[in-house]
């Protein structure tokens, strides 16, 4: 194994709370503290030492130990690779017409998923895998070094298992979402579909997945159905996460907390009791502003969650229907502009926040022992991710100690 130092880093985001430094201008004390902005653990004039696939050392450039190789960051900023903890990348077809219609004045409903289900069932394995790899590569080029992805466009035993088998060849973070919507084949008998999702389909899918998810929403699955689905998954060793409170108020968030789900995703329509439940739990609130952008919906209130002490993650929800972006930097810019997050908070939520939403401690930070997953920005500060929206600032991506971009 060889060692490499990346040196001459103007600003290094470590997410190592022991360093406790916030960005200049963020309003946080330079001497540290316990707030989430200080949790960014910023080091100026910094270096990172990579040994094999892990981070071995971080600190000031002048104190870096000797290594085999040396890379000069040229005064750029370095941040942890983005942890995109919510995407739907096993699909075929696209929904340009639906998007165009919606942006011409028609509302969004969960039913549009059926279009993608039909296209996905009709695709060959090779077509689905090529599409998946295309979007994983696109995400990597934009700095995402970890990506969770889900099934949910097959909705038959064979098609859901196929989606998860293909996904598991490309990522460790695979989620069984047979309960995306009630399959059109069971439109007259949703209870029979829930029985399938919790029975034969679960048996076929569990070997390929780490997580189980359900779209708990009017028009999809109600609270009782969602509880039955998630608890069945748990008995098979899958851990819960929930599409919760996206389009309306409902039981999703409370159910996620009750079942110790790793994440409640969307969290757009929350009561005070929902916010309190999240604040008093280990369940992360994963916000997906690409969905609100692409459906012209009301933004989730990140400020309210952060002020209540909720752990917040930011993710793309990349899918062909309601959020066809693989760009975490775009989501950071939206979160800062429209959801009340500071730039420091948004970058933290897209890295360490995503890691927490996947219950991982080996990614999302640049600290000794963590995987050497990091992004060199073509900018002197991570703040530029929000300050320069839409500009491709990712200039290098390192994953597991190897430069990939
Ligand atoms: Zn989703």
UniProtKB/TrEMBL annotation:
User: Record keywords: Transcription included?
Assistant: no
Biased-composition ranges for Low complexity?
Answer: 20-36
Q: Does the keyword Iron apply?
A: yes
Residues annotated as binding Zn(2+): 86, 88, 243, 317
User: Sorted alphabetically, which Pfam families does this protein's record hold?
Assistant: Amidohydro_1
Stretches the record annotates as Disordered = 16-36
Q: Give the molecular function GO annotations.
A: imidazolonepropionase activity
Q: Which PANTHER family match?
A: IMIDAZOLONEPROPIONASE, IMIDAZOLONEPROPIONASE-RELATED
What does the function comment of this entry state? Catalyzes the hydrolytic cleavage of the carbon-nitrogen bond in imidazolone-5-propanoate to yield N-formimidoyl-L-glutamate. It is the third step in the universal histidine degradation pathway.
Similarity comment: family membership: Belongs to the metallo-dependent hydrolases superfamily. HutI family.
Instruction: List the protein's name.
Output: Imidazolonepropionase
Q: Which gene encodes it?
A: hutI
């Amino acid at each position: 194994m060889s060692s490499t130092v990346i040196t001459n880093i103007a600003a290094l985001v470590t997410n190592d709370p022991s360093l406790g430094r916030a960005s200049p201008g963020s309003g946080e004390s330079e001497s540290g503290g316990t707030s989430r902005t200080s949790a960014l653990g910023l080091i100026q004039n910094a270096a990172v030492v990579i040994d094999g696939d892990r981070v071995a050392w971080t600190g000031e450039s002048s104190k870096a130990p000797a290594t085999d190789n040396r890379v000069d960051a040229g005064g750029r900023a370095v941040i942890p690779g983005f942890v995109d903890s919510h995407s739907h990348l096993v699909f075929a077809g696209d929904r340009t017409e639906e998007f165009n219609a919606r942006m011409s004045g028609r509302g969004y409903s969960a039913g549009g998923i059926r279009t993608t289900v039909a296209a996905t069932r009709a695709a060959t394995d090779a077509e689905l895998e090529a599409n998946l790899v295309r979007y994983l590569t696109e995400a990597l080029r934009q700095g995402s070094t970890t990506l969770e992805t889900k099934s949910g466009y097959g909705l038959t035993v064979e098609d859901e298992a196929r989606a998860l088998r293909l996904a598991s060849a490309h990522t460790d973070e695979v989620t069984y979402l047979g309960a995306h919507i009630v399959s059109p084949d069971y439109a007259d008998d949703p209870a029979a579909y829930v029985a399938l999702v919790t029975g034969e389909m679960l048996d076929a899918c569990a070997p390929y997945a780490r997580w189980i998810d359900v779209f708990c929403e009017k028009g999809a699955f109600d609270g009782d159905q969602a509880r039955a689905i998630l608890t069945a998954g748990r008995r098979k060793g899958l851990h819960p996460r929930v599409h919760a409170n996206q389009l309306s108020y409902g039981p999703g968030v409370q159910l996620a907390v009750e079942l110790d789900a790793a994440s409640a995703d969307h969290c757009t329509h929350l009561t005070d009791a929902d916010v309190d439940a999240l604040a008093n739990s280990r369940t992360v609130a994963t916000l997906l502003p690409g969905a609100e952008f692409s459906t012209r919906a009301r933004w989730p209130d990140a400020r309210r969650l952060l002020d209540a002490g909720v752990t917040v993650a930011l993710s793309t929800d990349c899918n062909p229907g309601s959020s066809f972006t693989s760009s975490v930097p775009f989501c950071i810019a939206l979160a800062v502009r429209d959801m009340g997050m500071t730039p420091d908070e948004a970058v933290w939520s897209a890295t360490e926040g995503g890691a927490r939403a996947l219950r991982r401690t080996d990614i999302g930070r640049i600290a000794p022992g963590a995987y050497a997953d990091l992004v060199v920005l073509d900018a002197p500060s991570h703040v530029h991710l929000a300050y320069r929206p839409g500009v491709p600032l990712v200039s290098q991506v390192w994953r597991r100690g190897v430069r990939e971009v």
